[in-house]
Amino acid sequence: MEFIIHGKIKMGTPLLWLVLFSSSLTFTTCAGLRLELTHLDANCTVEERMRRAMARTRHQLAWTDAVSAPVHWVRSQYIAEYPIGDPPQQAEAIIDTGSNLMWTQCSGCRSSSTSCFSQGLSIYDPSQSRTAHQPVACGDAACSLGSETRCAGDGQACGVFTSYGAGTITGLLRTEEFTFGSEKVTLDFGCITATRITPGSLDGASGIIGLGRGALSLVSQLRDTTFS
Questions:
Q1: Which residue of 107, 118, 221, 227 pairs with 111 in a disulfide if CB–CB is 3.0 to 4.6 A?
Q2: Residue 149 domain flag
Q3: How many CB atoms neighbour CB 68 within 10 A?
Q4: Is 147 helix (H, G, I), strand (E, B) or coil?
Q5: Structurally, how many domains does the chain consist of?
Q6: Closest CA to 105 of 80, 130, 124
Q7: Which helix (DSSP H) or strand (DSSP E) does residue 221 occupy?
Q8: 139-194, pLDDT tens digit by residue?
Q9: What are the φ/ψ torsions at residue 68 (nearest 5 degrees)?
Q10: Residue 21 belongs to a domain with what CATH number?
Q11: Is 228 contained in some domain?
């Protein structure tokens, strides 16, 4: 199975049909007409709905240029697999349509300590990548794009601070080359060095891919990108 996002979009264009609609919706018009709509996947389990939604996405975007990544299902969520940097370092991330930031745990964050969670793959080390940029500067425009970022304590680098239902993460905003399928794209992402995440909540993944509408989400960063 693959996770696919179209590389050039307009606001409001459906990108990834991962939203699971209610099994039925009821509408009442001003004339008193009552309509009940039943979702075509109403009798499916949550996992089956997710699989069918992903299949429809692949079919609808098959004719377009797209970025893609292999995904696998773990318990109740999809995890995408992709390399970071050059030479590539493998990473895995939860696909999250409800958040914006794309992030992964980085060197300096050790799963043996209390500041990080355990992950299945080695922790990403920017010092080992030829395409890794220095942390985004505090005064850079990217540092003011979302609520997830603000100046770090040193007043120079752009810090990442955000929370989820499972806990909080802290780190720096960096820029790096990511590979999705055969496409290489340069993205801003959270290089996380401290977390307070409920153990097991990420099912061994190293981070999260946010697909929300915020400026730092993967969807938004790919908006004006044309791939060849």
A1: 118
A2: yes
A3: 17
A4: coil
A5: 1
A6: 124
A7: helix 218-221
A8: 999 999 989 999 987 789 999 999 998 899 999 999 999 998 888 999 999 999 99
A9: -145, 160
A10: 2.40.70.10
A11: no
